[in-house]
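Fold it.
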Amino acid sequence: MRRSDREVKEFDEIVAILGRCSVVRLALCDGDRPYVVPLNFGYRAENGRLTLYFHSAPQGRKLDLIRKNPNACFEADGSFRLATGPDACDWSADYESVVGAGRASVLEDPEEIRGALDLIMKKYGFPGKPEYRPEYLLHMAVIRLDVTALTGKRHRKG
């Protein structure tokens, strides 16, 4: 990272930043072109390892690309606030962001799928233990991203 003064190095603090983000942009490989899609997400952070989960339609471009090439990366950002000043060079932005890479897979195990959906629901504030109608689960896929590289960044002006 070029601006090491803005780097967030502690795993728990990077996870805290991610927890304050509302959307993850997942980037997949589509031949010689990237494909990026914004997604709702849930996550599990244990023993210095991060796993992200996304729900999806059971067919489509995302799933096709993951099955062809599981390499993926992601970005999430939040706490954005424009910082202005009298001159153009005084303008900046306060923000926090997380960037990472890993391997994506489509979950098959029903218990793992339910656990991932629980994490997504928890992330967005669902109280208690969610129940899922079986017919809804038949029309959904869940993607897991096992994160292998992770960085965090923060800028606060003044």
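The chain has one domain: 4-150.
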